[in-house]
């Protein structure tokens, strides 16, 4: 089943009188349980495409369906609800809530978005903390943990609502080599365990090495698709 | 809800110094309002107490049209014997009325057999008058209170006449028929003159006035009423007015008119002014809270733009983001109010045990007893909290309407 379906989508930003075409005629399909990366130079359109997949923005032209939903037809509130229900986000700067503990940060989407009962929340959060190896850090404030730990907490938070898709924009950019490696291994392991599709926008070769499919974007165009799985192949798009 | 409250409270302590400063400003505003209201309220109570307890009583009843011509003290606009009987019945039927006193007000010429002067007099029944205006007797500078054949004179007249206690003095009055009658009185007491409508009146006994005015039966100029509880004044006034209005003359018009002390004393405008000043102080408080809370919350939204973006990206609905900020405003207001109230109560307690006194009317050493009522605390806290939340409304709406993509950039 196709989770994301792009049909000839274009994104144009208007800056004053100037129009910038950030994405040009992108067409692709992303299936369930995939580990995908979009690579390309800065300004090529990776983050713009991730924002569209994350329902944070709408395409200017073309049809974008995320989990069978035409996101262009959703209003502001519907998009927020959609994101809360189906998507998880991992940010370059972690974007954890500094006034909450590690545990509370991971619990946040369950309380604010899903409104799960306390018992279920506790079970879910402790399970995720264990999965990301942060159980012993659960009561610490965000300022008390390292960058790698923050990103692990962010991964747990992204997975807490059992999203179908997790979108990660440069998730290892602020991490040292060792932490980045650990974070990537963790995401790959969780992707296999929970069956969630991870989509990255990155420059990081460590990520590229780990993913199943690599899309290359250059100057707003999707120029290359490389399938690194057993039956995969490289093709120009 | 609990989580939003938790986030809001913790957010307040992110910038401890800034939040403390804002809470301090709000607390200072609350302190200013409560102290002013307590002190001004105490002064107002003293003032009103002096006026009602030494002169006017709480409510007065006159024959229709009497108050409009009060300066002339007309004897043809008195309440007649038959109406007095009806009045007594009505007054006795209202349990909130503690006591009432009948008065005849009259003008006359006073002579010490050497000089003469005009004087306004109230003829009273001393026992009843004591109950209605208990501070009247305190106005005696010298001498004793009133008996038949005696007169109490204001100090300004005795000074001019160089009269003293025990001196005989002649009083000449004209009755409603126009006949002039005179009588000699012994000065039994000298009253301190005070500011107000009857503050320079002399006093004679009610029976002496009836005799001098050659009334066949008692007619009165006014009834002064004292209530068990001053706070019941409006409700008693309304019910009394309703009952009195049922009594009509032959032309079908009401026989009586009724007024609270407020309509009879110029001091009411001072009391109103005190209330107005309290209101202005409250408006200033609203301004302080509005500006300080709005300022701090605008800065908070600006500083937390990325965080708001990530909350929104995670699917937090705009209404919940708005609520987090509204709770922050609510708690800024609550903390400021609580601290302000505690400091106010301590300060009021210190003023009370310090025995601060003021001079007004009869009293030269009246203890200022400021007090803060529960309703006052409730109103102030409510104002502060509502204004704090209103101040947060604009930044909260702005935060909730942020496009996550813009906020995260």
Summarize the structure in words.
The complex is a heterodimer of chains A (237) and B (409). Chain A is of the alpha/beta class. Chain A has a single domain, classed as Rossmann fold. Chain A has seven helices and eleven strands. In chain A, the strands form two sheets. Chain A has a seven-stranded mixed beta sheet with strand order 6-7-8-3-9-10-11, with helices on both faces. In chain A, strands 2-1-4-5 form a four-stranded antiparallel beta sheet, with helices on one face. In chain A, strand 7, helix 6 and strand 8 form a beta-alpha-beta unit. In chain A, helix 3 packs parallel to helix 5 and helix 4 crosses helix 5. The two termini of chain A are 21 Å apart. Chain B has two domains: 190 residues, no CATH class; 190 residues, no CATH class. In chain B, the strands form two sheets. Chain B has a six-stranded mixed beta barrel with strand order 2-3-8-5-7-6. Chain B has a two-stranded antiparallel sheet with strand order 11-12. In chain B, strand 11 and strand 12 form a beta hairpin. The two termini of chain B are 29 Å apart.
Keywords, please?
heterodimer, A: 237 residues, alpha/beta, Rossmann fold, 7-stranded mixed β-sheet, 11 strands, 34% helix, globular, B: alpha+beta, 2 domains, 6-stranded mixed β-barrel
């Amino acid at each position: 089943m196709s989770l994301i379906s792009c049909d000839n989508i274009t994104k144009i930003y208007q800056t004053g009188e100037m129009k910038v075409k950030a994405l040009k005629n992108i067409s692709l399909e992303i299936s369930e349980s995939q580990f995908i990366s979009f690579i390309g130079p800065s300004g090529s359109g990776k983050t713009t495409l991730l924002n569209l997949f994350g329902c944070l923005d709408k395409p200017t032209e073309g049809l974008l369906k995320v989990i069978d939903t035409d996101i262009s037809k959703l209003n502001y509130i519907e998009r927020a609800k959609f994101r809360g229900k189906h998507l998880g986000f991992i940010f370059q700067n972690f974007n954890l809530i500094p006034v909450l503990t590690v545990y509370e940060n991971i619990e946040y989407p369950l309380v604010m978005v899903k409104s799960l009962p306390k018992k279920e929340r506790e079970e879910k959060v402790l399970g995720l903390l264990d999965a990301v190896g942060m159980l012993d850090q659960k009561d610490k404030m965000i300022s008390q943990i390292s960058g790698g730990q923050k990103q692990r907490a962010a991964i747990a938070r992204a997975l807490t609502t059992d999203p179908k898709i997790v979108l990660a924009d440069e998730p290892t950019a602020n991490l040292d080599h060792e932490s980045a490696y650990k974070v990537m291994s963790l995401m790959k392991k969780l992707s296999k365990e929970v069956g969630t599709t991870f989509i990255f926008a990155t420059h990081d070769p460590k990520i590229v090495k780990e993913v199943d499919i690599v899309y290359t974007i250059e100057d707003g165009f999707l120029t290359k698709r490389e399938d690194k799985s057993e039956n995969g192949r490289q093709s120009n798009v | 809800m609990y989580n939003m409250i938790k986030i809001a409270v913790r957010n307040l302590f992110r910038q401890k110094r800034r939040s403390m400063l804002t809470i301090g400003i709000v607390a200072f505003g609350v302190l200013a309002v409560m102290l002013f209201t307590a002190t001004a309220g105490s002064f107002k109570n003293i003032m009103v107490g002096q006026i009602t307890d030494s002169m006017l009583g709480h409510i007065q009843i006159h024959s229709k049209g009497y108050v409009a011509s009060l300066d002339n003290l007309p004897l043809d606009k008195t309440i007649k014997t038959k109406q007095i009987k009806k009045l007594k019945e009505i007054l006795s039927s209202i349990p909130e009325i503690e006591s009432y006193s009948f008065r005849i007000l009259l003008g006359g010429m006073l002579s010490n057999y050497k000089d003469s002067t005009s004087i306004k007099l109230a003829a009273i029944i001393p026992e009843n008058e004591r109950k209605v205006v208990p501070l009247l007797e305190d106005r005696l500078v010298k001498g004793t209170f009133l008996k038949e054949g005696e007169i109490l004179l204001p100090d300004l007249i005795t000074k001019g006449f160089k009269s003293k206690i025990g001196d005989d003095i002649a009083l000449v009055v004209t009755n409603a028929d126009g006949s002039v009658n005179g009588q000699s009185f012994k000065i039994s007491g000298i009253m301190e003159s005070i500011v107000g409508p009857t503050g320079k009146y002399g006093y004679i006994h009610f029976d002496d006035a009836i005799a001098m005015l050659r009334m066949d039966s008692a007619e009165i100029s006014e009834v002064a009423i004292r209530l068990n509880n001053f706070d019941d004044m409006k409700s008693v006034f309304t019910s009394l007015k309703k009952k009195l209005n049922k009594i009509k003359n032959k032309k079908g018009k009401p026989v009586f008119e009724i007024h609270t002390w407020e309509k009879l004393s110029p001091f009411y405008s001072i009391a109103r002014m005190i209330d107005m000043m309290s209101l202005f102080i409250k408006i200033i408080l609203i301004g302080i809270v509005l500006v300080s809370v709005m300022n701090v919350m605008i800065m908070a939204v600006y500083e937390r733009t990325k965080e708001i973006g990530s909350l929104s990206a995670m699917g937090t609905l705009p209404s919940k983001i708005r609520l987090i900020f509204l709770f922050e405003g609510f708690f800024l207001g609550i903390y400021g109010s609580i601290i302000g109230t505690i400091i106010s109560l301590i300060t009021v307690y210190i003023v009370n045990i310090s025995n601060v006194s003021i001079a007004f009317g009869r009293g030269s050493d009246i203890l200022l007893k400021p007090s803060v009522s529960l309703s006052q605390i409730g109103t102030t806290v409510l104002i502060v909290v509502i204004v704090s939340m209103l101040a947060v409304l604009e930044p909260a709406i702005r935060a909730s309407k942020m496009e996550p993509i813009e906020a995260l950039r």
